[in-house]
Every structure is written in C-alpha cells, then in structure tokens.
Inverse folding.
C-alpha cells in the first residue's frame, strides 16, 4: 500500500518522518520512519487487516529545524466484496419464483438487498441478460432495502418492449459495488417470456 503526501514547493528542503496506526497519531502499525524527502511510502509487512481504519501521521522538519505534524483523516481497508441477496424472477414479494412471464406484464423482480459492513454499498445495477450474456435491460439504483428483507422492484416497462426471443432463457442479474470498488453479482434461476399462458381443461361424464 502506498501513501502519497502532496506538498507545496516550500517544503522541497524538508525531511519527512511518518508513522502509521489504527488510531489518529498512533503508531500501532508502524513506528516513526524516516522517509527523507520522499513524498510517497510503501508500508511493506505492515500486517494490515480487513475492516481496519488506517491513519498516517507525517512529521515535517525544514532546514531551520522547525517542525509541523499532520494527520490523515483515516482510510478504511476493505478487501472483501459486498454481499448480494437472492434475486427472484417476478413481483411476488413472498419469494415465489416465476418461470414464465407474459409479454404484457411489467418488468419486475423480487430481491433481498445487499450489504457491506466495511465501506458500504456504493451502487447496484439490475440487468436482464440472455444465456449468451446479451444484455437487454439495465437499471441503476442505490441500495434501498435492508439486507435479508425481500422487496419488489418494477421497471415500468413491459416485457414486449424488449427483444425477447421465443424459447430463450433470460436471467435477472444484480451487480453491486462497495466503497472500495469491489463488486458482487447474483443471478436469478431464469425465466421465459411468452405471449400467453396455456390453460387445459378436461370434462368427463360417466
């Protein structure tokens, strides 16, 4: 990991000393380290842990021997992608999956949300993709649901407005990114778009 400290030209004759810690002004991770006039530093072997907030303190001394100290606001270390809940085809908030959708229906899904306890959810994208990974639909939204609680989303567009093919399997896909830029993807188990539902009846007299 590299820490870059930008300085104005008046510091060109300064010596930099830095320390890193899990608390402001602390040195729990790395003690005072002389980096001379370098304005970047790679903390090799610092044993950083996922979910830990890292603070960097810089002590600057000029040619007259005068010093000043500056502390970073902290950066949260997040090396794990977000957790994305189940994606269910159709608009049944109870979680009942839809295998076929009529062309006249509005595009919809049920979804149990996403969470990231380190850097938080930045954004999520809902798409409909074919089995050949062709994307027919994209919709971006922020995470507006408590993870683990099912909620229905409607696109206010009908399936017939998109170019669905007969007998093709399509998937509702949710991709979410966290504050660290890491991404997770969850796909539904697939559905087909049809013109009408078939209904069979049989009457028999004995």
């Amino acid at each position: 990991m590299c820490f870059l400290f930008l300085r104005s030209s008046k510091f060109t004759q300064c010596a930099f000393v830095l320390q890193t810690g899990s608390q402001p002004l602390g040195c729990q991770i790395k003690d005072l380290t002389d980096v001379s006039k370098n304005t970047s530093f790679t903390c090799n072997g610092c044993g950083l842990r996922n979910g830990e907030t890292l603070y960097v303190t810089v002590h600057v001394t000029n040619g007259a021997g005068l010093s000043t100290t500056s502390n970073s606001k902290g950066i949260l270390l997040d090396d794990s992608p977000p957790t994305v809940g189940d994606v269910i085809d159709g608009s049944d908030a109870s979680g009942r999956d839809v295998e076929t959708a009529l062309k006249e229906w509005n595009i919809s899904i049920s979804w149990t949300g996403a969470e990231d306890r380190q850097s938080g959810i930045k954004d999520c994208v809902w798409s409909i993709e074919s089995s050949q990974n062709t994307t027919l639909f994209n919709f971006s939204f922020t995470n507006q649901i408590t993870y683990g609680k099912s909620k229905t989303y409607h696109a206010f567009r009908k399936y017939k407005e998109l170019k669905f093919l007969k007998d093709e399997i399509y998937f509702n896909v949710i991709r979410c990114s966290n504050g660290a830029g890491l991404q997770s993807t969850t796909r539904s188990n697939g559905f087909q778009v049809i013109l009408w539902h078939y209904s069979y009846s049989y009457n028999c007299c004995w």
Notes: The two ends are 83 Å apart (CA to CA). Residues 1-22, 199-206 have pLDDT under 50 and may be disordered. DSSP finds no helices and 18 strands in the chain. Residues 21 and 194 are 60 Å apart (CA to CA).
